[in-house]
Write a structure and sequence with these properties.
The chain is built from eight helices and 15 strands. The protein is an alpha/beta fold.
Length: about 325
């Protein structure tokens, strides 16, 4: 529901972008109190149009950005300034068709100003993939976010197959929430972690982000998608990035829901730096013979030695090598 704000025409107010639909921006004023429909000021809008594909212009203004809004007579607003971000979540944007030179990859910013970042995986439907999770974790590390893991659909954890992975990531230092929307397992602990924070939910299509948000916040009623049994992958139900605000226990709690994705590539990572985004590697990296060691084939590699001696899990090292293969050596950052 949108509220007409009785501000004097020409008044500048501050708010936070809660949703973007094309070139229409929803801005909430006063935490959760009121919402104003806005457009971008001409200068900012010009920057938007200068991009060759509007998908790559999401960094002009994104969900979570604090903005200054110039109020109009009809109650709408014009975003005149995007205030500095304290942090953001981003990934490498898709390659531009017909790019003029090699290495022309842009950074796609998803949302900003986060207190916490939650990566959601599922036990099955879609089947858990630790290499995919590790790619998401590297993205969180690159963006210097407070990252946690939600393991959804624990009711499908027959034989306790997820326990080894849960213990592995907890030992590395990540907070892990095993949950189930069917049995309600772990929902109370996750809810307490969300309370009073601005958090982003991110994961592959079909892992149950919408179902989880519905279970945590009963007023949402988000559309829940199906799983394709031929591919064991989810179908997209969330189209736009949206921030939901709640007054919970006298605290403003905000959760950013993001569209499910099929593939993830962290932005701004060079081969020689990748190991620094694996926290379980960090204590060994400085012991390598070469300071540009990629921990793949170099002699005197302390990381490879740590794997052989059982100090680094082989599954994590395999994830590292697979991700290393995909990093483009000619990238410009």
């Amino acid at each position: 529901m949108y509220f007409l704000l009785f501000y004097t025409i020409g008044t500048i107010i501050q708010g936070t972008i809660s949703k973007i639909d094309g070139r229409t921006y929803s801005v909430i004023i006063g935490g959760n109190a009121r919402e104003v429909i806005c457009s971008l000021r001409g200068r900012l809008n010009h920057d938007f149009r200068m991009k060759r594909d509007k998908r790559f212009a999401l960094d002009v203004a994104v969900v979570g950005d604090d903005v200054e809004v110039l109020m109009q007579q009809d109650g709408s607003g014009v975003i005149t300034e995007v205030l500095p971000r304290k942090n953001f979540l981003s990934r490498k944007a898709a390659k531009i068709k017909g790019a003029g030179y090699r290495g022309e990859r842009l950074e796609q910013i998803i949302c900003s100003n986060l207190s916490k970042f939650y990566i959601i995986v599922s036990v099955d439907f879609p089947l858990f993939n630790n290499k995919t999770l590790d790619r998401f974790l590297v993205t969180g590390e690159v963006n210097k976010l407070d990252t946690s893991i939600i393991v959804n659909k624990m009711d499908l954890n027959s034989g306790g197959i997820m326990e080894e992975f849960i213990e592995l990531y907890r030992e590395i230092g990540y907070e892990v929430f095993p949950v189930s929307t069917k049995s309600k397992k772990g929902l109370k602990q996750l809810y307490s972690s969300l309370l009073g924070n601005r958090s982003a939910f991110w994961g592959n299509s079909g892992v149950g982000k919408s179902s989880l948000l519905n279970a945590l916040f009963s007023d949402l009623n988000l559309v829940v998608g199906d799983i394709s049994f031929s591919t064991n992958k989810g179908k997209h139900t969330t189209v736009n990035v949206s921030m939901f605000s709640f007054e919970e226990e006298n605290k403003v709690t905000q959760v950013i829901d993001t569209p499910g994705i099929r593939e993830i590539e962290p932005y701004g990572v060079k081969k020689e730096d990748l190991g620094h985004y694996f926290p379980d590697f960090v204590s060994f990296i400085n012991k390598c013979k070469y300071n540009t060691c990629t921990h793949e084939h170099e002699p005197g590699c302390a990381v490879a030695e740590a794997v052989e001696n059982g100090f680094i899990d082989p599954m994590r090292y395999d994830s590292y090598l697979k991700l290393l293969e995909t990093i483009e050596s000619d990238m410009f950052f």
